[in-house]
Amino acid sequence: MKRHVRDSFFVVGEGVLEIDDRGEATTRQPSTAEELRRFRFSRLGPKGPRTDEETRVALATAITSNVPQPDSADPAVPAGFTYLGQFVDHDLTMDRTESQLGQDVNLDELMQGRSPALDLDSVYGRGPRDKDDQVFYAEDGVKLKVGTTTPVPFPDEGTNVPFEGFDLPRRGGTAGTAADRRLPLIPDSRNDENLVVAQTHLAFIRFHNRVVDELALTGLTGERLFRAAKELVVRHYQWMLKTDHLPRIIDPAIVDDVFTNGRKFFEVPGKHHGRDNTPTMPIEFSVASYRFGHSQVRGAYQWNRVFNSTGPGGIASLFLLFTFTGVSGNFDPSSATPADLDDVNRGPLFTLPSNWIADFRRLYDFTEAERDDLVPPAEFGGGNVTKRIDTLLVDPLTQLPAGTFGGRGTAFREIERNLAFRNLTRASMMELASGQQIAELFGVEPLTAEQILVGNGGAVVDGLSEEQQARLVEATPLWFYILREAEIGNGRMGPVGGRITAEVFHRAMEGSRISIVRSPYWRPTLGPDSSTFRMVDLLLFAFEGKADLLNPLGDPQPAPGN
Whose CA is closest to 274, among 434, 116, 432? Predict the structure, then answer.
């Protein structure tokens, strides 16, 4: 199974950075073959100082403290974007050559497959002609497979039926553990680690299949139809990221500058001399700036008519959204602890129960597309917005199920379930540049000591000793710095975190085989006009604009007399 968390990084020009059996950070030089068989990271800034474990524990404890947390500021960000961000991360870091390591792969394929690209390879893999990836595709070799949910009697007959096309396709069969049988038939199993990202992946499968149906009307068939559909899907996906996703999480002026005037710091055109000009991924992005989404996660969600604050199943806790997956969970509602989810033989169901199908109206705001008919009823647990991007993580993230970091069946310390500790530890292992070092590199004014220590309604670091606080001010771990910067900036990433993130997105689009950056005159055709294609437009197209597909379980019925 693909691990969610990397414990080893191949950094171009440095070697393999990893944690050894004693928990110590090491660097070693790989063989030539090993070099080519690793995802390609790079270092944007200088090396920085490591953070001792005592400080990492104290800071992680402050970040995950059980305190009230503000929602995203005006304009509020719909909660689906938290998990769209996770889906995008898996697309960027998907290694589509993984299944080919024992076979002949030419150098161009190998370099491209090990490079970050925004090309939906987490959905497509290496395509339907690849013998290992054919399993993801329908019999026609053009459409992607979908799965069917399992009928359950709770709470009523509306959920006691199978829904075809509302779960990921799954391995099934009778061999292996129960967990093996639940594994999703998708190129990147990380997209089944929580239910929101799993249903997001399913929406992209449906988007592709709907595009196939539309293009088939033009007479295209077979491989030509698949290639045309994939190209149209990827271009619309990139447009949506550029115009809808990024401006919600980054100061829009930074996004506009990068996509209008180009990159200033990362693999700048004319200065970058990488092999075949294939992109790398800076560890400052992977280990720090793109972990901003961890602070957006809510502790519970209004999920559908069954699982919401006024529904028969109660609100959907974050733990339950791990439970009802095949990779992190077991589809078993009696699971009560992370240890229950770690049991690979627990649970009688092998596909998603019908009562856990997403109501996408609660995850996105369809009034943006002037679809007032797609607003969930507020009195029955309405929609969700993200938490503000800041230095606080909800405390359920101190108790990650082992399946979220590839730890099922392994021994680990309890602190390693804490997501903030994992992030800080990985950055220390990598000797990541401090926030101050990147601010100096970018020529921007660094945060003040007061901003770092006090912030703006985020983590309270009084639990750190005076000496630890002094070190925090002098060399702030980059991830914490970027979150503080967003906290000061009303919930959007600023000149350090925003610049890193926007430039990596731009480079990953430029380096993709299908690219709107290299095709600057391309415009979307599946949205309301030639300049607009948002996530709500993607969902409307994927689900045919129908309320009963975006919300197949329907709404609760008002009590008699109401």
Answer: 116
pLDDT digits (tens, 9 = 90+) for 417-453: 888 998 998 889 889 999 999 999 999 999 999 999 9
Residue 320 DSSP SS3: helix
* Rounded-to-10 torsion of CA 113, 207, 6, 264: 70
Give tens-digit pLDDT for 279-289: 888 989 988 99
Per-residue pLDDT tens digits for 495-554: 999 999 999 999 999 999 999 999 999 999 999 999 999 999 999 999 999 999 999 999
pLDDT at 95 over 80: no
Contact between 11 and 200 under an 8 Å Cβ cutoff? The reply is: no
CATH number for 8-550 (one of 1.10.10, 1.10.640, 1.20.120, 1.10.490): it is 1.10.640
DSSP code at position 493 = B
Task: Return the pLDDT at 109.
Answer: 46
State how far the alpha carbon of 105 is from the alpha carbons of 97, 102, 273, in Å.
8, 9, 23
- DSSP conformational letter for 243: I
Contact (CB, 8 A) for 305 and 554: yes
3-state secondary structure 59-111: HHHHHCCCCCCCECCCCCCECHHHHHHHHHHHHHHCCCCHHHCCCCCCHHHHH
Considering the chain, what percentage of its residues have pLDDT values greater than 90? 74
CA angle, 408 then 411 then 417, to 5°:
70
DSSP 8-state secondary structure symbol assigned to residue 244:
I
The closest of 509, 520, 478, 510 to 496, measured between CA atoms, is 478
DSSP state of 308: S
Please give the radius of gyration of the chain, using alpha carbons only, rounded to the nearest integer. Answer: 23
pLDDT in tens, 272-321: 655 557 888 898 998 899 999 999 999 999 999 999 999 999 999 999 99
Q: How far apart are CA 297 and CA 288, in angstroms?
A: 16
∠ CA(496), CA(450), CA(255), 5° rounding? 20
pLDDT-derived band at 560 (thresholds 50, 70, 90) equals low
Structure tokens, 151? 């009928």
Cα–Cα separations (whole angstroms), residue 193 to 315, 399, 418, 483, 513: 19, 14, 16, 24, 28
Confidence of residue 17 (pLDDT cuts 50, 70, 90): confident
Three-class SS state of 506: helix
Domain chopping of the chain, boundaries: 8-550
4 pLDDT higher than 50: no
- Name which of 340, 303, 293, 300 is nearest 318 in CA terms: 300
Strand-strand pairing, 25-28 and 300-301: unpaired
